[in-house]
Amino acid sequence: MGLCRDHEGSILLVRTSTISAVQLFWDEIKAALMACRMAEDAQWLSVYFEGDALNACSAIIQNGKDVEGFLVADCKVCHDILSLHPNWNLTWVPRKRNCLAHKIAKWAVQTRRSGSIAAADIPPFILNCDWLYKPP
After folding, report:
1. N or C: which end of the chain has fewer CB within 10 A?
2. Mean of the per-residue pLDDT values for the chain?
3. Among residues 110, 94, 109, 88, which one has the least CA distance to residue 4?
4. CA nearest 28: which of 4, 68, 56, 65?
């Protein structure tokens, strides 16, 4: 699932896809790759990618080092895309700060939504979840 927001937190793009994976790590790398492609399609000059799976973020930043199998290629593609754009950064954030992405992904699975989703189609209780979290 890819969620793109502007510097004020407003949703710009939401895209989901059905990924049949057996491990969360693979899902996270595929989601990062989808987000990179979304940003490329939109031709954005400055992008901050946030992921809450530390192992996936590290694997991409380290160009697939210590990753085995077909995931290496996906990590390298993501790393290469990020390298082509000096103002694009991938950082790890705690899961609490990624609430909206997880809520939208869960809702998309439950409602069998796939592809581009308009923010207006997402229920308000999901869109407001980020504001419910109060930092420590």
Report:
1. C
2. 85
3. 88
4. 56
